[in-house]
Amino acid sequence: MFSRVAIVNRGEAAMRLIHAVRDLSAETGTRIETVALYTDADRTATFVREADLAYDLGPASARPYLDLAKLERALVETKADAAWVGWGFVAEDPAFAELCEKVGVTFVGPSADAMRKLGDKIGAKLIAEEVGVPVAPWSRGEVATLEDALKAGEQIGYPLMLKATAGGGGRGIRKVSSADELADAYERTSQEALRAFGSGVVFLERLVTGARHVEVQVISDGATAWALGVRDCSVQRRNQKIIEESASPVLAPAQAAELKASAERLAVAVGYRGACTVEFLYHPGEKLFAFLEVNTRLQVEHPITEITTGTDLVKLQLHVAGGGKLEGEQPAESGHAVEARLNAEDPDRDFAPSPGRIARLALPAGPGIRVDTGVSEGDIIPADFDSMIAKIIAYGRDRDEALGRLRRAMAETTVIIEGGATNKSFVLDLLDQPEVIDASADTGWIDRVRAEGRLVTHRHSAIALAAAAIEAYQDEEEVSVQRLLSTAHGGRPQVQHDSGRPLDLKLRGVGYRVSVARAGRSRFRVGVSAGASEVHHADIRIDRFDAHSGQILVNGRRFRLVSATHGPIHLVEVDGVTHRISRDEGGVVRSPAPALVVATPLAVGDEVEANAPILVLESMKMETVLRAPFRARVRECPVSVGSQVETGAPLMRLEPLADGAEDEAAGETETVEIELPSVPDGVSAAERVERGLQDLRSLLLGFDVDPAERERLVATYLEARAELGNRPVEGELELLTVFADLSELSRNTPGGEDTVPNGAVHSPREFFHSYLQSLDVERAGVSEGFQAKLKRVLAHYGVDDLERTPELEAAVFRIFLAQQRTAADVAVVSELLRQWLTGAPPAEPLSERAGLTLEHLVEATQVRFPAVSDLARGVVFRWFAQPLLRRNRARVYAAVRTELTYLDQHPDAPDRAERIQAMITGSQPLVRLIGQRIGRPGRDHAPLLEVLTRRYYGNRRLSAVTVREAGGHRWLTAELNTPAGVLPLVTTAADIAALPGALRALGEVATEGAVADLYLRWEDQPDVDATAERLGTLLAENPPAAGVRRIVVTVAGTGGAVMHHHFTFERAGGNSAAFTEDRLIRGLHPQIAQRLQLQRLREFDLTRLPSADEEIYLFKAVAKTNPADERLIAMGQVRDLTPLREADGRLVALPALEDAVTACLDAIRNIQAQRPQNKRFDTNRIMMYVWPPTDLTTEELNQLVQRILPTSVGAGLEEVQFLARRRTDAGKLTELAVRITLDHGHGARLHVEAPSTEPVKPLDDYRLKVLRAARRGTVYPYELTGLLSGPEGTFVEHDLDDSGVLVPVDRPKGKNSAAIIAGVVTTPTERHPEGVTRVVLLGDPTKSLGALSEPECSRVIAALDLAERMRVPLEWFALSSGARISMSSGTENMDWVAAALKRIVTFTQDGGEINIVVNGINVGAQPYWNAEATMLMHTKGILVMTPDSAMVLTGKQALDFSGGVSAEDNFGIGGYDRVMGPNGQAQYWAPNLPAARQVLMAHYDHTYVVPGEAGPRKAGTNDPVDRDVSAFPHAIVGSDFRTVGEIFSAEHNPDRKKPFDIRTVMRALSDQDHPVLERWAGMADAETSAVQDVHIGGRPVCLIGIESRSVPRRGFPPTDGPDTYTAGTLFPRSSKKTARAINAASGNRPLVVLANLSGFDGSPESLRKLQLEYGAEIGRAIVNFEGPIVFCVISRYHGGAFVVFSKALNPNMTVLALEGSFASVLGGAPAAAVVFAGEVNNRTANDPRVTDLQAQVAAASGASRAALNAQLAEVQSAVRAEKVSEVAAEFDRVHSIQRAVEVGSVDAIISAAELRPRIIEAIEHGLKK
């Protein structure tokens, strides 16, 4: 046996030999090596990797497998002792057999002689004829010339087969049907054979049509030949075998035996040794055979013979080649085997080779399956060789089983070739054809039926198109995701996602248009159309198993899916059927930048020449002309003039035109019917509800839903929901939760949890913006509260944590899209809530969750979407509060009815008074009960009349209560004790029909001056006005006695009525005058109206409106003098003031009072919800009367306000008033009014005062302006004056006199003519009882949004002049839309703006202070003014921003229109959180205007200088001057220090290198009884400098501390900068902050610097960001500083910091240093490593440890020397590090802080205990200079 076999082949053939050799080695125990001969195309192929040895034949293009010289060299150099050729290449080349013999290598195959005899098709035919094998008519030899061929053709007759004698594998063979075809084919066939096989000899043979191709497999040892089996290879395409089987299904056993015998005779006749195949044509009809040829090699399809005979033909080849004999019994056939060839070829492109890299290879297995392959996943199928991937062989007991197994195996096979295709789908189609199943297919069958259009399957084509479109959509979606993330990384998140644009796809030459919308994580809505056909829609779900395989669910039907994309080509396999789909994006012209389309000169259908204009864009005021890249026709133009487009947006689609194409009509393309699985019929309502919930959830989560579809989705869902009973389901709670969570994440106002450790406050929207930049919560620096919100939202997308993954990126993308359309989604949520309001409440299991969900929704939407929160509160009331109220009401009514029934039966009961008192104290109204009792026999009305009378008139003030009968009615009389005397009362109850009699009887019971209350039952009561008119008529017709002065008629509601009406009639004159109705209090009992101060509404017409609670009186009030003034007034009474308190007595709630307020709010909201959003009332009031006396403190009342406020959002409240009573110290009850006023400028304010009797005034012109400003989200300026002055201060308005000077004016508020108001405000404070005086400028948004022109600018200039004369600051509440733009003014306004700008510059350069509060949007000129006033190095003033403010040069709308770069809104362009706070231009942030005012006053507390005084006044302090700061706690997590003293102790911090918190040290130093005001707290990248205004020893001081612990950087730091901001280092932004702080304090207050300052960062990033400039600014600021400077070294002081803070810069500087601190030009370590590097190296070289080793190295040799050298390197490194530390320590000892004192750099060294007293001493000393 051989020891080394060379494989002269590749791929699957090579692997076949390797497997056989391995089997032999395993069987025999003898090692046999294989040698792979390979080309460059197969360098990493499987067979090369699997072979024992490999030999490179060179480039495949040189065809080395046919180059005998190269093969000879390979055989010799590899020392092979055998060569196996398999099939193809030189397998049938006798020259190669001879070459092997020449070099002493055994050729595993026949001898060269036998090969020539049988391999030559001509010779083989001649031999076959000799041994009696039937041969079809043929040329009986070579046709050497065309003339010979034509002559032979005439003799044989057409059709013919032209064959190459050396051909094979379907090559070198052509069918010719005529002489003309023969003439054409002769040269081509000859040349093809010459190129492929090295021989161009051809012959002719009669074509046997309708024949079967059968062949006999022979193995022979030269003397004995075994014909092992007969194969049928009839299923061919163009003579290329595709499906082979054994045995032949068309041959009888006798026929098979005859063929085998003839084949054996043929082999023996030539002494054949090896494997060969004898091929025949068989005509089933004639049962005739015709010999074709002998293949003197192993055939590709040999495995089916192996599997049916149990042999291994390759092992047999090796056996006989090694001299072995065929001994024993010849193997017999058993069962049936079928083989299919899996090739890399594309049936849709006429089976063109389709090479490429195998991206996925999953081959089948299972019973009866064998797979022969030569490739693995990742291999490349080269274009240089055949396209074979694998042979799939199936074996069965019979043919049916074998075919079934082959179908299964092929279906289970997955092959994905990048950019390529396979014939898998074609093979599967073949296996299902009837002709294959019944074995009737002949050799020409495939070619015939393909010509007829068969075997081109369109099955599942629409599904494949949908899958391809989804993949294309996902590709575009990924681009959109990455664009969002990349733009967000740059600080401006943008998204382009057009889900509605259809994709144009092509499949088998037919064009389709497919639209895709993502409806969920794996759900899609797809529409497919072809040409003008209708669009076929499908709901699709794709479940991916991996990148290529998965399942696709189409309209509920499931399919297997395999897909791959390569460029614009999609290969999609659906249930085994493969479709090659191409995507056409050519001709799309996209926008090069954000722009405005200003011209579209072409229309769809127009033709345009190359380079001609097609579109004109304008971007940043510049026009860009886009030109046609080629000659084309306009196919689509989705934009028009005026369209705003983003970068990359599609503008036009062009169809290329060839020359002359304009005259050619487009060819008609055959379309294919689109078949998609139909939607299942009979879908249940529950399933439709579930589907609807999925769709609505996807809509809210930002998935693709056409806006036009939104209404349809909601309507469809509600229709299905109605079928299930309109009861809330669990999925609806999820919808509301999704909306609430997204709303919270996009909220633009901060909440209590939105504070980060440095104290800065950010809104969730800004946190999300920061998070988008890196998708890293730590880098973004977001709060834990925001992280919790983010996690909740991500969970809705199936993302469980914050680790960055593709799933998280996709979720963030959808969140961003959802945020963009949240306002539109309000309609969906609102409609659902409306359904909840009108439908049944949820079942018990959902009830609690529904309540929690609604509370969450209210909290999340009450600011941004008040309409939603109003609806949610309405649902809460209806589902939870209303049933509770009803139960309580029912319980109370049942108790009252029990009492009344008892008293009906026992009118003289001894406990009658107690029972009546119990009814009086009940919490429910009782008028309804008397209405129900009137007219019912056996009912005594007296007890209930007494209860009602005592309730209305006061229980304790009634006396002489008696019951009388008169006129058939039972009357109750009583006397009311009033300060004016005794008032007689009479009351009765009657039906409306009995009212005349009661009126007449009234004279019998009433005394002089009596007041009568009549309760009526009135069935079919008319409307209110008609009722009043009828009652007036009855009074006129039945006039009561003259002594009655007032009659109150109460028409009691009964049954289902929710409201009763009170009508009050009084005599207009004397006792004889007629009664007239008091229209003002209609609807209220006069006593209730009196308590609720209804008389204060006398300037309004009131209309009673229905309310859900009959104790709540809701009126629509319309001002008599101004019908445009409409408002709602809700009134009620509080009968119980029992507080809910904690165990320690702290107030928790006042349930009854809060319930009453809630009821009023619900009544108001119910009316508001019925009005359009922009037409809702916004001056509504709640007026409550509180019966029990109150002892609540002011603090507890404030607590009550804070509890009520959130519930009032969106109700349009102007005021809530409680009329109550409180006992004085003497025990006397006095009335008081507790008012909560809600004002846009002041927020909620609490007033406790005596009740007012002044009428509520209708809106006047001033109040209308206030409201107009509030509706715009701004504050009317005059509303700020009281806030600024405080309760005891003053505001004097000023205006220009004739000379242009500001002078005081005395005029009503709101009479300003300019859009800016000027004045002088004075605010008394503890330190300045005479007042802190400022000149004030207030922007007026009601005048063209504060637009600026001459009137405004001249007042700005005059205000600055006035502030300069008064020597006070200018305080500016800036609100302006920029320079005025109108048809009558233009550039002159800009000149005026510039004049004001100049005055600001001169004012601030002269030391003037301007403090600005930005509230609202400042545009254009105003931001420039703000910058000049507060943002430059020399300015002293501050700028405060609120959440509703922004400073923009150009507003978002204008930016978008001009094609400029903008953000999602003006706050994104110039708000505090994203821009102005981080860049330090806004120095403070305040949540609202009152807080901004507090910031201003805190600033003045440190900086205000009374005119004529030298500086800010010293404050009183109880903090001792000599306090030791050492004991101050250092409570920083993870710190080594517990106190400040430990930071500066030699024991805990000997080298002063441990990190500590500088703000703790600063706080320890400053006065403990004065608050700290930190400036620039939100300035990004400036954290290493802390700037605070503090008091030290009572003196206002600017205190600067250098952060002494590392500060993490946000986002991704640049590669040329540090990863963190290191301790004790100034970076560019912190240097800038420090310089500005020093300048701001100069000439005003002392400067104290606590320095742990190693120097300035010198990284490339810092230098690029102006480190040198800002560092130099510090030096300039120190030089120019006016006032004392105390610079205290608390740790280290080195480098450039020494220069800019040196006492040489300013004579009024004191430099102190704490004991143990360091001061030098350079730190010891860097000095040793750089400056004294030579000394370090010298000491290292002389160290004994180094010199000893060096001596050993010199004496050693070889391996020991190398080891010693390695040891020496380690020792040198360790010793050098030691010497660096040694030199550093020496340097630090020399350049100690003591040396700095000696040379005068430092004034004194102090202990930590002396830090505060010595600094105070230095400050006081400096102030005396």
TrEMBL record:
SUPFAM superfamilies: ClpP/crotonase, Glutathione synthetase ATP-binding domain-like, PreATP-grasp domain, Rudiment single hybrid motif, Single hybrid motif. One of its GO terms (biological process) is fatty acid biosynthetic process. It comes from the Bacteria. Signal peptide: none annotated. Keywords: ATP-binding, Biotin, Fatty acid biosynthesis, Fatty acid metabolism, Ligase, Lipid biosynthesis, Lipid metabolism, Nucleotide-binding. One of its GO terms (molecular function) is acetyl-CoA carboxylase activity. Residues 125-322 form the ATP-grasp domain. InterPro entries: AcCoA_carboxyl_beta (IPR034733), AcCoA_COase_cen (IPR013537), ATP-grasp (IPR011761), BC-like_N (IPR005481), Biotin_carboxylase_complex (IPR050856), Biotin_carboxylation_dom (IPR011764), Biotin_COase_C (IPR005482), Biotin_lipoyl (IPR000089). It holds the Pfam family Carboxyl_trans. Residues 572-655 form the Lipoyl-binding domain. The keyword Metal-binding does not apply. The keyword Ligase applies. SMART domains: Biotin_carb_C. Its cofactor is biotin. Residues 1542-1825 form the CoA carboxyltransferase C-terminal domain. Residues 1-451 form the Biotin carboxylation domain. PANTHER family: CARBOXYLASE:PYRUVATE/ACETYL-COA/PROPIONYL-COA CARBOXYLASE (PTHR18866), PTHR18866:SF127. This is Acetyl-CoA carboxylase. It comes from Amycolatopsis rifamycinica.
